[in-house]
Amino acid sequence: ATPTAIMVGTGLGAERGVLFKNAVALETSARIEVVVLDKTGTLTRGEPEVTDVITDGIAQDELLRLVAAVERESEHPLADAIVCHAEQRGLDRLHAEGFENVPGHGAIARVANRRVVVGNQRLARREDVDLGMLAERREELAGSGRTVVIAAVDGRAAGLIGIADAPRETSAAAVAELHALGAEVVMLTGDNLATAQRIAGRLSIDTVIADVLPSDKAAKIAELQRTGRRVAMVGDGVNDAPALAQADLGIAIGAGTDVAIETAEVVLMRSDPLDVPTALRIGRGTLRKMR
Ligand code: ADP
Ligand code: MG
């Protein structure tokens, strides 16, 4: 690339808050064929809110008190949503002991002398929790695009907490523009498949890779690269950093974590998904000027 073309491209990006950290990033942007986007905090706002509390054999407030006690010890965004909801309901706080964070699964602690397990289906399965009559409700909630948190008390399924995280306003338009640029658009998430598929469907995303453990996100990128195509990964979380590094082009959401921003080669300062196709277009423009 000529230094002038690179300067022009970098400048155009800067005007829109699209920061290319180096010349290679600008050139790679022009050649991206697959764009992988993290769901939570990238395609969605990352401001989850509790919408449903369903219980079996326990009062709603009692369940929320137990679950909030565990989640108060966790730093997960879903945990924040649950704790906030319990506070809004004015529930008194219980003390949690022996807190254990299970990455990509949930968390476990003892509260009021009971063992409280809070997390996804994978965790429920691992802990041998039978959902019983809650199984059907879980499917309904997930099918409506809610993230479902399962709570078990002393080994028994006690409740479901449905959590919604609205897509960012421009996510659908960003996907449409990426399609117009000829890219395949993939959603990558640790959330469950039914929830992810519902949200992906609304955004017209081509492919969903769900139920991915934090430690497996980079391997999923490598799998896509094995098809011989150049892959960009867009993410915001600590979890996303290895995938951002693995991708041919790592793109971080500006509102994301420091680790993601440091790892990525492109940073979207406005945290707007529409700036992903903008980055690709600026890259293509730069390449054209080079020839
Ligand atoms: P994502 O890729 O969506 O950012 P994570 O890998 O952090 O998600 O977590 C994957 C899944 O594990 C979440 O969707 C959730 O179901 C479950 N999970 C993780 N931590 C917690 C927690 N503290 N409370 C409830 N569920 C959790
Ligand atoms: Mg995220």
Automatic annotation (TrEMBL):
Protein's cellular compartments: Cell membrane
Highest taxon in the source lineage: Bacteria
Family (UniProt): Belongs to the cation transport ATPase (P-type) (TC 3.A.3) family. Type IB subfamily.
Annotated protein name in UniProt: Cu2+-exporting ATPase
Species assigned in the record: Saccharopolyspora shandongensis
